[in-house]
């Protein structure tokens, strides 16, 4: 029987502008195990010379001196590596079904915000989330490597960014009807059509606003960044026609399944503007 195994490594290189001639690796860290499978999905600076890494693993995997074993299928991990390449803490979250991390960012205080999704039931520190099938999550891990809160969203949380004030901005996509804190969003197309969502999570782990991109065909949110003020910049893709508040974009593809990229700005009150990139296919 062929057994697939992946091993994660993290490296730090210096003098990157001269990579071809004078770059050198300061350190490299291997994460893995003889009976484990591990995949990295995101990395971010901790703001103090170290790094925050997230992904998922299955089986038994070593992170420096710590060893983790998944509860069943893939579990989420978040690890902190000091500036010298030492894994000084790692935490795991998940359940017996598949759980995936998709992105990580610094909270500005040595901790991490992590976004991803889980199936059915998953534990995050002392809190358990449940979903009828697939649910999104945003969790906060402190600088000491402790999960102090997690919030649930209906759909896939794909990207996360700090808001500059201790909270986080998140985007992804959902199907059917989704709950995002006290806000309920409903699909604008037929059954199983995906809509983009953008939400804001406070430093206390409260979803205080959420908005969606409305379209009759699939649209997705893939990446997000703070605009430096009170809003977010989001990019993703769409097909056919979609609405960003008062702005409607129509894909240039000949068929409904041809995707065009978009970039949009959003605040708690909705979308300010949206532009697309594309051409006839």
Describe it.
By secondary structure, the chain is an all-beta fold. The protein is 1% helix and 62% strand. It has 1 helix and 24 strands. The strands form 7 sheets. Strands 3, 4, 5, 6 and 7 form a 5-stranded antiparallel β-sheet that branches. A 4-stranded antiparallel β-sheet has the order 8-9-10-11, with no helix packed on it. The protein has a 4-stranded antiparallel β-sheet with strand order 12-13-16-17, with no helix packed on it. The protein is globular, with a radius of gyration of 19 Å. The N and C termini lie far apart (43 Å). The model has no long low-confidence stretch (mean pLDDT 89).
Compute the average pLDDT.
89
Q: Unreliable runs, pLDDT <50, ≥5 residues?
A: none
The share of residues in helices is under 10%
| Total number of helices | 1
Q: How many strands in all?
A: 24
- The secondary-structure element order is EHEEEEEEEEEEEEEEEEEEEEEEE
Distance between the termini: 43 Å
* Residue fraction in strands: over 45%
Brief write-up:
1% of the residues lie in helices and 62% in strands. The chain has one helix spanning 19-22, and strands at 8-14, 24-31, 36-45, 51-63, 66-69, 75-81, 87-93, 99-106, 112-124, 127-141, 147-153, 156-162, 168-174, 177-180, 183-186, 195-201, 207-212, 214-215, 219-226, 232-238, 241-244, 247-250, 260-267, 270-276.
């Amino acid at each position: 029987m062929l057994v697939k195994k992946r091993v994660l490594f993290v490296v730090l290189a210096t003098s990157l502008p001269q990579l071809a001639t004078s770059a050198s690796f300061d350190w490299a860290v291997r994460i893995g195990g003889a009976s484990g499978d591990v995949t990295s999905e995101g990395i971010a600076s901790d703001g103090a010379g170290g790094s925050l890494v997230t992904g998922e693993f299955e089986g038994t995997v070593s992170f420096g001196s710590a060893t983790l074993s998944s509860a069943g299928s893939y579990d989420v991990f978040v690890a902190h590596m000091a500036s010298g390449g030492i894994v000084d803490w790692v935490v795991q979250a998940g359940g017996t079904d598949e759980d995936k991390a998709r992105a990580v960012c610094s909270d500005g205080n040595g901790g991490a915000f992590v976004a991803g999704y889980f199936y059915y039931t998953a534990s995050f520190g002392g809190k358990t989330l449940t979903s009828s099938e697939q649910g999104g999550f945003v969790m906060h891990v402190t600088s000491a490597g402790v999960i102090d809160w997690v919030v649930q969203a209906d759909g896939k949380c794909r990207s996360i960014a700090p808001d500059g004030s201790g909270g986080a901005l998140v985007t992804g996509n959902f199907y059917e009807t989704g709950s995002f804190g006290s806000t309920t969003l409903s699909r604008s197309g037929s059954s199983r059509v995906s809509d983009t969502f953008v939400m804001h999570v406070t430093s206390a782990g409260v979803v205080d606003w959420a908005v969606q991109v409305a379209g009759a065909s699939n649209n997705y949110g893939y990446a997000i960044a703070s605009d430096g003020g009170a809003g977010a910049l989001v990019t993703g893709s769409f097909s056919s026609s979609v609405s960003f508040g008062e702005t409607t974009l129509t894909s240039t593809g000949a068929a409904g399944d041809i995707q065009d990229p978009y970039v949009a700005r959003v605040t708690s009150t909705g979308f300010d503007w949206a532009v697309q990139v594309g051409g006839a296919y």
